[in-house]
Amino acid sequence: MRLLPMLLGRLLAALLFTGAAQGHAEDMQTSLDWLKVVAFAGHQTNYSGVFVYQYDNHLESSRITHLAEADTEYEKIESLDGSKREIVRHHGQVWSYINHKMVQVDSYHGRSRFPSLLSEQLSALSKNYRASQVGIERVAGYDTQVILFQPKDNMRYAHKIWVHTDSGLLLKSAVLGEKNKVVEQYSFTQLQIGGKIEHAGIMPRTPKALRGANLAETHAQLNFATNSGWVVGTLPLGFNKIMEIQRPMHEKHAPVIQMMFSDGLSAISVFIEPDDGDEDDVDGLSSRGAVTLYHRVVDKHLITVVGEVPTRTVVQVFNSVRYAGK
Q1: From CA 229, how far away is CA 249, in angstroms rounded?
Q2: Residue 212, pLDDT above cutoff 50
Q3: What pLDDT is stored for residue 114 in this prediction?
Q4: Whole-number Å distance between alpha carbons of 35 and 238
Q5: For 32, what's the count of Cα atoms within 13 Å in the CB-facing half-sphere?
Q6: Could you say which DSSP state residue 143 is in?
Q7: Gap between the Cα atoms of 92 and 73, Å rounded
Q8: In contact, 274 and 281? CB cutoff 8 Å
Q9: How many CA atoms lie within 13 Å of 196's alpha carbon, on the beta-carbon side?
Q10: Strand ranges (E), the chain
């Protein structure tokens, strides 16, 4: 295992010490410190294992391998159920196994939340969540600190996380709805932290022409920052814009505008594209686990809102999208 910096080790020790006797005033800050450790450890820790994703009565299992070397990362996620699916990430670039071949995709499109967390806007969480440390539990054979983030409104979900007390790696994550019912959950069932991990089996099987310096050029062409003139008038408190880009999307005839917002634990994306009259450009509301999708054609544009928030929030955001002009 690549050793974490001494500062991280000291912070983990301090968090464990203060967690036993702190008051409510300190609990939120300590919980935020845990999140900062999680965000760091997810990138700097070597690990391999199997995790499961569960929602409703559905269960999916995947194998993940992560290696940190110098200033770069290698990560590979392989599905263990159903058809072959594979995502490979290297130094901010992402490949996905599609139609029996590896193709490069946009980093946001290929991003996996678990065992990482959104690191944006952590300082604003105290305005929207009440945090508490709710005990020590074992996950996949490791001791974890359990932290609950309870929302202060009904526009977002509660989040519960299990953090490895030694490395700071996120080992389990649950999204909770009404009456603390589990909406979706990720959890390691097998895990090795540290040890020798060969990066040869992690690298994507792409042609030589796409490797090396050409990859950076190819990736840069996938999307670019823009100011489209589209605005979202109503967002839950604490959600701030992380990015606005124009990007190609699979099976789309024209580039798509994407705006992404985050409150530090959850994300909402708004996609806007010209209505091309395809059969799938119809009104629709669907959900999978904690993710809700709503799309509808408005003024010759197909607007899609995807969020890790309750349905009421997605609909509210959708109804506030408008073109204000550049």
Answers
A1: 20
A2: no
A3: 76
A4: 17
A5: 18
A6: E
A7: 8
A8: no
A9: 2
A10: 47-55, 58-69, 72-79, 86-90, 93-98, 101-105, 129-139, 142-151, 158-164, 170-176, 182-193, 224-225, 230-232, 240-247, 256-262, 267-274, 284-288, 291-298, 301-307, 321-323
In 3D space, the residue among 171, 133, 165, 192 whose CA is nearest the CA of residue 11 turns out to be 165
Residue 171: CB atoms within 10 A of its CB come to 29
Q: Give the phi and the psi of residue 210 in degrees, each rounded to 5.
A: -100, 5
- Centre a 10 Å sphere on the Cβ of residue 279 and count the other Cβ atoms it contains: 5
Please tell me the pTM assigned to this model: 0.81
pLDDT at 281: 60
Residue 190 contacts by C-beta under 8 Å, 6 or more apart in sequence? 49, 50, 140
d(CA 156, CA 32): 18
Beta carbons within 8 Å of 275's beta carbon, 6+ residues apart: 281, 297, 300, 301, 302
Cβ atoms 85, 78 nearer than 8 A = yes
Tracing tokens 């992402």 back to the chain, one arrives at 94
In whole angstroms, give the CA distance from residue 300 to residue 42. Answer: 42
Token couple for 61: 């299992």
Q: What does the pLDDT look like over 2-13, one tens digit per residue?
A: 434 444 444 454
177 token code pair: 């709805």
Are 202 and 95 in contact by the 8 Å Cβ rule? The answer is no
Structure tokens belonging to residue 140: 């996949």
Helix (H, G, I), strand (E, B) or coil at 38: helix
**pLDDT score of 211 more than 60:** no
**Tokens 């310096």 — which residue?**
213
Structural contact between residues 294 and 271, judged by C-beta atoms closer than 8 angstroms:
no
Tell me the chain's radius of gyration from C-alpha atoms: 20
Residue type, 55: Y
Q: Kindly state the average pLDDT of the residues 212-229.
A: 58
Cα dihedral 184, 292, 35, 54 in deg (nearest 10): 20
Q: What is the C-alpha separation between 159 and 157, in angstroms, rounded?
A: 6
Q: Token pair 């070597």 is at which residue?
A: 46
The Cα 308–Cα 197 span in angstroms is 33
3-state helix, strand, coil in the chain (%, to 5): 20, 45, 35
